[in-house]
Design brief:
3-stranded antiparallel beta sheet; single chain; 5-stranded antiparallel beta sheet; elongated; alpha+beta
């Protein structure tokens, strides 16, 4: 009986953790470039009472085993890398990646982080930075006399100078891809960091070697589907209730034994 109480308890813990994952998805439904998380479950170790194929006689073997499970747990939260909806902003500094890839961001400690959030701004020096003021890499500086900014699908950045100064090409935005993008570490602030699981970044021009293209005047919305998350929430709640009822049932059985034996 004690074992069944423990098994039901692991179910409660796992479903509560899954609810936290779902809550975080819903909280970030309006976060630019956010990728929803999916909780990954696994069963715990089994008590092997009788081994399948074990010898039961001189020439006889057990066709099935007798193993008791000890519950479940969540072992990972996997980032689902599906494309979010494209939202038109008509802001020339808003950029979205259509397809695989991430923008490269230089952090204050000198390391690179990666993001799908392309809502860039201009620093006081005219450099492209994210909402936290971190520089986009490769660095792009917009001259003060620029009248308009144009970013091509291949990442080429050019400006039209004021007073008939003509067109000037400033550089090219490069994006990074990872063999296992789900292995990136989430840092918060819409940033990811390379890990051993993700592998090293494959940096190149947008639209080349499997990288996505850049869309100017657009932002990628979160790929969270609110209806799907609400369904998952109801499913999680019901699973939690069932595990709770299992604990109540075992408690009633133990009470019966104590009172009647």
């Amino acid at each position: 009986m004690d074992a069944s109480l423990w098994v039901a308890k692991t179910g409660l813990n796992a479903q509560q953790t899954r609810m936290s994952v779902i809550s975080n998805n819903l909280a970030n439904v309006n976060t630019n470039g956010f990728k929803r998380d999916r909780a990954v479950f696994e069963d715990l170790l089994y008590q092997n009472i009788r081994q399948a194929g074990g010898q039961t006689g001189a020439d006889n073997f057990a066709p099935t085993g007798f193993m008791l499970g000890t519950g479940t747990r969540i072992v990972a939260t996997e980032k689902m890398q599906g494309q979010g909806n494209m939202i038109a902003t008509e802001n020339s500094l808003d950029l979205a990646i259509e397809g695989p890839g991430l923008f490269q961001i230089l952090q204050p400690d000198g390391t690179l982080a990666y993001t799908r959030d392309g809502s860039f701004k201009l620093s006081q020096e005219g450099e492209l930075v994210n909402s936290a003021g971190y520089l986009l890499q490769p660095q792009i500086a917009i001259p003060q006399e620029a009248a308009s900014i144009s970013v091509g699908a291949d990442g080429t950045v050019s400006v039209e100078l004021a007073n008939g100064g003509g067109n000037q090409q400033l550089g090219q935005i490069q994006i990074a891809r990872f063999v296992n993008a789900a292995g990136l570490e989430s840092l918060g602030r819409n940033l990811f960091r390379e890990t051993q699981a993700s592998g090293p970044p494959l940096v190149g021009a947008p639209g080349e070697q499997g990288s996505g293209e850049i869309a100017q005047g657009m932002l990628e919305a979160s790929n969270v589907n609110v209806v799907e998350e609400l369904v998952n929430m109801i499913e999680t709640q019901r699973a939690y209730e069932v595990n709770s009822k299992a604990i109540s049932a075992v408690d009633s059985m133990l009470r019966f034994l104590n009172q009647n034996l």
